[in-house]
Amino acid sequence: MTVIALRPPAPSLAADWKRRFFATPLQAVVSLLCLAVMVTVVWTILDWALLTAVFDPSRGAQACLTPGAGACWSVIAARWRIILFGLYPYDEQWRSALACLTVVAITVLSCIPAFWTARRLPLVWVAGTGLFYLLLKGGILGLPYEGEEVWGGLVLTLFIFVSTCLIGFPLAIGLALLRRSELPWISKTTGIIIDGVRSLPLISILFTFAIVLPFALPQSLIGDKLYRVILGSALFFSAYQAEIVRGGLQGVPRGQEEASMALGISYWQRVSRIMLPQAMRNALPATINQFVITFKETSLVVIVGFFEILASGNAAYGTGEWRFAYVEVYVFIALIYFVFVFSLSRYGAFLERRMAVGAR
Q1: How much is the pTM?
Q2: What is the pLDDT of residues 86-109, one digit of tens each?
Q3: Where are the alpha helices (DSSP H) in the chain?
Q4: CATH, residue 204
Q5: How many domains does the chain have?
Q6: What's the domain of life for this entry (predicted)?
Q7: pLDDT of residue 159
Q8: Are 249 and 180 in contact (CB under 8 A)?
Q9: Whether 346 contacts 291, CB under 8 Å
């Protein structure tokens, strides 16, 4: 005779809360105190951010200094162009806006599975980056020329991030493959380069490429400081991403590579069609995390004199009229970072579920 074990019914929500938070008198007191603190904090933030906040910039900065006034969001309404576009000429800021939308379009297209091919995805990134650069730089198609010295704000942050990933990711794959080479002098030399870059802080690399490198190069190879900084950032990104890719390659069963060699499949076909697709799937969580870190690390370029979004935020409240409103400016910038980073991390979680990364 078969005995069927019946699962006990799940406790009700009230019973579950009682068990979790009010099991004993002391636990009930602590739970009520924590709830009171949470309600107080939430109400204080809500009152400051919305209920008593000042939104109308026409009232001027003095309206934010009246007793009982909350957040001074009028500084954002009055100075948002500086935060988003930096020193870019006012009449040409539509180009910066289109450039930002181009980055969003690149990201959206990269998230569509139909573009996940070896030809389409690089084409999207190369074409999108070229359009982004054309809109900012100008000089052709009737667009006035705007030098890199006037680029700033969010658009400069996005340009550095996109360029770093576009250059650093293929370089990371190359470094990972070179470190797995069967020739000791290639693998060891690549390992020294990767470990040497990873042992240095990003600020020191940016400072070296921006300030020190021109003293060691001939005048014809110096180039613009912005592109030297992007190369330094891409090198730093590639060193970390190369180890992530190499870890993904190590997760591919050795027998698959041996079987493909026995079938006479060439090295590049083995890498591009068998090894790398599985390696990138294995390395997906760490890769998404590296993209998130890279986006946030773009703020470090302010150290070498670039007018990115944080520096633009400093300029937005750096006048005598709005000097007191720095909290609101930084909250607005933090919200921008949050939107980009949270969207990227949520998409990474979606990919993990779609590909069943880590499933047993």
Answers
A1: 0.84
A2: 888 888 889 989 988 988 888 888
A3: 13-21, 25-46, 74-85, 93-110, 120-137, 153-179, 184-198, 202-207, 213-216, 219-222, 225-250, 254-262, 267-269, 276-282, 284-297, 309-317, 326-355
A4: 1.10.3720.10
A5: 1
A6: Bacteria
A7: 87
A8: yes
A9: no
